[in-house]
């Protein structure tokens, strides 16, 4: 997950890229930020695409 988020920031964002991990007994929060003023947008990956699915996961 971290690799996907950081890779996306490097490919599509603006430097500097920042990674912040926050951990407590039951939760890990991963934040990746950059200085781009462009908001992310949803893209639809085709079945055979190696990328383009992004990485967002939140436990219920």
From TrEMBL:
This is ATP-binding protein. InterPro entries: Anti-sigma-factor_SerPK, HATPase_C_sf.
